Amino acid sequence: MSTAAKKLAGPLVAVLFNAACFVTILWLTGRPGFWEFQISSYEKEDRVHPPNPGCIVFTGSSSIRFWRSLSEDMKPLDVINRGFGGSQVSHVNQYAARIVIPYRPRAVVLYAGDNDLSWPWSKSPETVRDDFARFVGIIHAALPETWIYYVSMRPAPLGWTDATKIKKGNQLIEEFCRTQERAQFIDVNRAMLAAGGNLFGWDRLHMNAQGYAIWTSVIKPVLLSRFE
pTM of this prediction? Predict the structure, then answer.
């Protein structure tokens, strides 16, 4: 191998290795069992500091998981954060019996679905709607009086997910919520678009403090109107 080829080979191997690691991580996060470490961590935390029965559970993907100021933002409401990384709606369904139902919450706030629609899983909006319908069924089978709130999927500047699919998914889920006695769709997209500016962090995928402030301004009044 020539000197020039050797110089190119090193960076190329590094790029291929990093790409392989990235694809492997994506594949793993698409498998429900991947999140066992996070669920077990929540269960351990619950044994040490049991949440109050009747609290409001926020769950779903990284937009919930990274909402570090959630408890403070939602005061005086009693809330707990049970989000887990890049989870999909079907993953939340699998773990609902462990991170939602045991708390006997008076309400559950779910944000999930954009990962489902994104590459490499590329589920259809109809599948996401159906998975959410299963979530409602799981919760209401055990807790028929619990309210369920679905926070609208929002596109991010990074553009992993087709905005058309997000719009369709939101529409289908909003329509489904209208058929349920204790399920409500919360649209955060309108307020985020109206706010303008930069609502996302360095990765152009996850929200910054300004983004969460918008979410708080929309979600909190809805909850307070029913649970204050």
Answer: 0.86
